[in-house]
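[recover] target loaded
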């Protein structure tokens, strides 16, 4: 599932050069990580925003939002914002600020340890 490159550029412009922000391809889209926590992302043309469990229900009452449910099971604390709710730069900034506010309240994640590489099975040589 491709993601909206124009929306990705708008988000990159908002984040600017920030060492606490990184990008990661996830969910068939693009996620923006803040101090190791997913803050927001793009799936297809929609913005995914992490608002937290406390703000989840009130946020769903706002225009252009719906639960994040692309797996068939809603992920509490994450909402999707359709493109109509992102046309104005101030609206996009507001959503990004919500995601940053939530992830900023969390302790930074420790870098994950690299997974051990699997060894390739090779034919063993027997002495002749």
């Amino acid at each position: 599932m491709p993601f909206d490159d124009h929306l990705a550029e708008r988000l990159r412009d908002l984040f600017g050069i920030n060492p606490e922000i990184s990008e990661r391809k996830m969910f068939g889209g693009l996620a923006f990580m803040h101090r190791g926590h997913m803050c927001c992302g793009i799936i297809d043309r929609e913005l995914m925003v992490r608002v937290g469990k406390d703000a989840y229900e009130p946020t769903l009452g706002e225009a252009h939002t719906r639960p994040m449910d692309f797996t068939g099971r809603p992920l509490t604390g994450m909402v999707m914002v359709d493109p109509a709710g992102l046309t104005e730069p101030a609206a996009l900034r507001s959503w990004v600020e919500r995601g940053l506010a939530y992830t900023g309240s969390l302790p930074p994640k420790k870098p994950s340890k690299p997974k051990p590489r699997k060894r390739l099975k090779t034919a063993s040589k027997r002495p002749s």
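[recover] notes: The chain has one domain: 5-104.
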